[in-house]
């Protein structure tokens, strides 16, 4: 039996290993120099002013809703076709998740569905939008930004699938996912199936200095360690004319969402190969596209799109269950992304039900993600293609 072909997987090189080992042997296991180096290099790669490394993508999302001060009952709009964490971060702060349907052509949060929600409610009903660069395809945030300005909303871009992805704005410029030009905050994950792996890990990017400082504080218990920020008196702190060396203050209810230094070292080492990885992903997408062109069993696919980061390669097919089970017998582990979030039992409790999001639900009936990762060999990809085509013949 040939080796299993998953839908996505990490690639750890000898250079990655050497970097991690060197960091493990250094003076720092956590919050050492690798954190700042990774943050700096990541911000530069994405094109944002600031980056804050955190424990995972979910923690990154939670820090965003905390920094934006989401309050109980506040409504936030997101897509049902995403990993649940995109929505859950609103619930962590007691906010209310409002799903809007997808565009069946792009599988992304549909601008018109969002606009309809906003137009149908008094100003101030909604507080934010969380668009997701699903599968690696960049959301056109220029359009959403205009809506956000009109309705006074913040935007958190969930870019977990799209480091290195971009959309082309109305002036013809490339706008990288997470660059902060149109969103208040953006988040990334370094889970092994994502483009850059650090085991667990995440990043928040922003161009807003105030939010950046808040994220830093909330990442580490809400503690500040800087004389000019203290609110207790020097006398209380036990100093004479200055705050004593040990002094610090916990000013907000934060968390321990720090990344370790050796994970940052791995992330930094992986980041060096990010563009190479995307180029390979685009080549794989091209080959799938050509292989499936005009095939009657394919209902739709996003095709080869400029700026797509190809975290996933998704096709929509008839008899999806049959194909999925057949591929498993061939040791090909295709996957389904995603079961619509609004139909998870947790969200059904809140009143969401079938037919609420007809386009997302119809997409879910047919979608399947084929193997897509830089180390997938040409021979393996051909095997996958032959099996898919063979199943329908
Ligand atoms: C992976 C992922 C997350 C969560 O990231 P973790 O690092 O696994 O916590 C959030 N949103 C999307 C779209 C993801 O793919």
Automatic annotation (TrEMBL):
GO MF term set: transaminase activity
Documented EC number(s): 2.6.1.92
InterPro entries per record: DegT/StrS_aminotransferase, PseC, PyrdxlP-dep_Trfase, PyrdxlP-dep_Trfase_major, PyrdxlP-dep_Trfase_small
Lineage: superkingdom: Bacteria
Keyword Cytoplasm attributed: no
Keywords from the UniProt entry: Aminotransferase, Pyridoxal phosphate, Transferase
Transferase listed as a keyword: yes
The family this protein is said to belong to: Belongs to the DegT/DnrJ/EryC1 family.
Protein name as annotated: UDP-4-amino-4, 6-dideoxy-N-acetyl-beta-L-altrosamine transaminase
Lineage: Bacteria, Pseudomonadati, Bacteroidota, Flavobacteriia, Flavobacteriales
This protein's encoding gene: pseC
